[in-house]
Each structure stands twice: as structure tokens, then as C-alpha cells.
Specification:
With 422 residues, the chain is mainly alpha-helical. The protein is 79% helix and 0% strand.
């Protein structure tokens, strides 16, 4: 296939076949992105360790799946209230400086969690308050983190950079939960929180070492509210972006949230312990990591819409199967497949949105994207926690799988242009 201009005026690159290590990691040739990648990777190991251990600690203190859902919901409330404003801030100020503030705040919160746990003062209400505080920091961090990638690489490497972002996110999701589960079993939760606090220094150091050219910003004459309305109107007026964000909303609400009840699943359904909880998270992360690496290795491929559609159908079938099986090794294998399928949805939706959006609106549009991803996942956590208390964990996961399948069928027939996206 010969290269030619794309819809956004960026020259397309001929698709080369076969695996290429250079193509898989092409974004790493950019110094700033290299710093960002390794710093975030270390930090994400700690973050996933804290997510896994905090959930099991909450279940240990309360023995309630509903509490797990409530804690997840508390972390998402600031996202729902502040994420869109965070997107306006990311368009107005230096994204690197904004991330330095948010990453520092999250490091302080991790050390505070470690201190409370180490001294035996930790209580369920404190876990809720800490989740709320992390959510506030994330509401400003996520739009900046999603938007800064375009400042770190050349446009032709954007798809690869987004794929590598998913790779590092899911590498953390493999190592962090597994190490966290083992460390919890050996030493208790406090040291897991302490190591998470230390891990934030990696990304802070990377941000300080970057040499980023100042972005040319428009003179802002409109109010924050008018700029926010402009971003929302843009999303709703763009059929493909609107559909992609809708798909992320449904997947976050009924898909990823099922991991919230892994601590209860490990104990009640599988009859195991904290280490098994970590392995469940790690298996899902392993599948996502393999999927993200596969996407990165494809280079500038021309069938993103079809691959995304395949993932949106595979995911609900796999989590339904997870709800049925009881053998622990089979559960882990199914979660590897589910992690691979869901990353096709999240990764390729992110890539297509970033490709289609205008640069001047990037922060606001990515804040809406992040809101649907981070904001509705906690609502899903609350739902599946309450549904698990009422119906049991397996029926709750089956109900979620049914909702996901209906949404995928709906999009397949009403938005066929999504499958043609390249």
C-alpha cells in the first residue's frame, strides 16, 4: 500500500508486515518520551501494588463486598466532579508542571496510608477518605497525562506511544499486584503503601529531567465554563469520537469494574487468600500487556476499527466464562484473555480519539475521555459491590457481561463507520 495523506493531513506510512522490535518501541527514540515511559513504569508498579493491597485490606477490615464497591466509588467522585475542569486546566497551563504537583500529592497520600497502617490506626472510613483524596489528585493528573504524550513524540509516533503507554500501564498491572499480594502475605500492607510512595519519585525525577519546548497557547478570552462547553459540544458533534467515548463509558461501567470484587472472589468463590487476589489482578494485567505489545508491534496498521470491534465482542464472552469457572488455573487463563480483549477497546479507542481531535481542544476532549474511563468505573464498582451482596459475585459478573454484549451489538449495527476507521 502506498503512503498518502490521511484525513487530518498527516502522511500515512506504508504498513510493513511481521514483527519488528524497532517498530514496536519506536516512540522510545524520543528522549522526553523515554524519560516519561520509564518513570511512569516504576510509578505504576507501586500504584497497582497499592490498588491491590488496599482492596484486600478493606475486605479484611469489613468482610464486605459492598464496602469494596463503596471505596471504589469514593475514588471516582472527584473524577466525576472535577475531571472536566482538569481538562480545561491542562489546556491552559504547562502540563508537565501540573503533573509534578499531582504526582507529589499522590506520593504524600501513599506515605500517609503507610503510616496509618504501620501504626495500626487505619480504619475503613480512613480508606474511604484516602480514596477520595487520590481521586482529587487523579482528576487533574489524568487529563494532563493523557494530553502530554503529543508533546513528547512526533505525530507519526503517536499511535506507538499510546500503545506503549498501555504496555507500561499493564506491565505495572502484572508485577504490582503479584508482588503486592506476596508482600501482603509476608509483611502486611503497610510496606506496600510505603513502596508506592517511593515509586512516585521516579516519575517526578523524569518530569524534572525533560526538555519540553513551551507550547504556543491561544490567548484565552473565554471563561472556563465557555471553554468547557466548547469541548463538550465538540465531542457530541463528532460521531466517531462520541461513539468511542460512549463505548469507553459502558466498558468502564460494566467491564473493568468487575476487578473490584477480586478480593471477595479470591476468598468466597475460589477459597483462597491475598496472594490469589494478587494473581487474579496480575493475570488480567498479563493479558493486557501482551495485547498492548501486539498493537505496538503492528506499527501504522490500517484496521484499528475492526480490531477494536473484535475486542468489544470478545470481552463480555470472556468475563461471562470467568463467572462460570471455579478452577483457579482456568480462572487465571480466562483473565489473561479478558485483559487482552479489553485493552483492544481502551487502547484503540484512545488512539482513534487522539488522532481525530483538534490540538487546541485536546486537553478538554481527553478530560471527557478520562471522565468516562475513570469516572464511571467507580460507579460500576459501587454497582457490582452492591449486586454481589444481593445476588452473589458470579451472577453480578454475568449481568455485567450481558450489558456489555448488548452495547457492542448496538454499536456494531448503528455505527458501521467505526469498523472502517484506520
Amino acid at each position: 500500500m502506498n503512503g498518502g495523506p490521511t484525513a487530518d493531513g498527516v502522511p500515512s506510512v506504508p504498513l510493513s508486515r511481521g514483527f519488528s522490535l524497532e517498530r514496536t518501541f519506536s516512540a522510545l527514540k524520543h528522549r522526553n518520551y523515554r524519560l516519561y515511559f520509564w518513570g511512569q513504569l516504576v510509578s505504576l508498579f507501586g500504584t497497582w501494588m497499592q490498588i491491590t493491597v488496599q482492596g484486600f485490606l478493606g475486605y479484611h477490615l469489613t468482610h464486605s463486598a459492598a464496602f469494596l464497591g463503596t471505596m471504589g466509588f469514593a475514588g471516582g467522585v472527584p473524577t466525576m466532579l472535577l475531571m472536566l475542569y482538569g481538562g480545561v486546566v491542562a489546556d491552559r497551563i504547562d502540563r508537565r508542571k501540573l503533573m509534578l504537583l499531582t504526582q507529589t500529592a499522590m506520593a504524600v497520600l501513599a506515605f500517609l496510608t503507610a503510616g496509618l497502617t504501620l501504626t495500626g490506626l487505619i480504619r475503613p472510613w480512613q480508606l474511604i477518605l484516602l480514596a477520595l483524596s487520590f481521586g482529587i489528585a487523579n482528576a487533574f493528573d489524568a487529563p494532563a497525562r493523557q494530553s502530554i504524550v503529543v508533546d513528547l513524540v512526533k505525530r507519526e509516533d503517536l499511535t506507538n506511544a499510546i500503545a506503549l503507554n498501555s504496555t507500561m500501564f499493564n506491565a505495572g498491572a502484572v508485577v504490582g499486584p503479584a508482588v503486592g499480594g506476596i508482600l501482603y502475605a509476608l509483611t502486611g500492607p503497610a510496606w506496600c503503601f510505603f513502596f508506592n510512595g517511593l515509586s512516585f519519585f521516579a516519575v517526578i525525577a523524569a518530569l524534572l529531567a525533560m526538555r519540553v519546548s513551551p507550547r504556543v497557547r491561544e490567548v484565552r478570552r473565554a471563561s472556563v465554563w465557555l471553554e468547557l462547553k466548547e469541548g463538550i459540544a465538540y465531542v457530541f458533534g463528532h460521531p466517531i469520537i462520541r461513539t468511542l467515548i460512549g463505548l469507553i463509558l459502558v466498558t468502564g461501567l460494566f467491564g473493568s469494574s468487575f476487578a473490584t470484587i477480586f478480593p471477595a472472589w479470591a476468598v468466597k468463590v475460589l477459597g483462597r487468600d491475598a496472594a490469589a487476589n494478587g494473581l487474579l489482578h496480575a493475570a488480567r494485567g498479563a493479558g493486557a500487556l501482551l495485547s498492548a505489545l501486539a498493537i505496538a508491534s503492528l506499527g501504522h496498521f490500517q484496521f484499528k476499527g475492526r480490531l477494536l470491534t473484535a475486542g468489544s465482542f470478545a470481552f463480555p464472552f470472556l468475563i461471562f466464562f470467568f463467572a462460570v469457572v471455579r478452577a483457579f488455573p482456568v480462572s487465571l487463563m480466562v483473565l489473561v484473555g479478558a485483559g487482552a480483549a479489553v485493552i483492544l477497546v481502551f487502547n484503540l479507542a484512545n488512539t482513534l480519539v487522539q488522532t481525530l481531535v483538534e490540538d487546541r481542544l485536546r486537553g478538554r476532549v481527553m478530560s471527557i475521555y478520562s471522565l468516562t474511563f475513570f469516572g464511571f468505573m467507580p460507579v460500576g464498582s459501587l454497582w457490582i459491590g452492591l449486586a454481589s451482596e444481593k445476588f452473589g459475585e458470579p451472577p453480578a459478573v454475568m449481568i455485567n457481561a450481558a450489558f456489555l454484549l448488548v452495547a457492542s451489538v448496538f454499536i456494531y449495527f448503528l455505527m458501521p463507520t467505526l469498523r472502517r476507521q484506520k
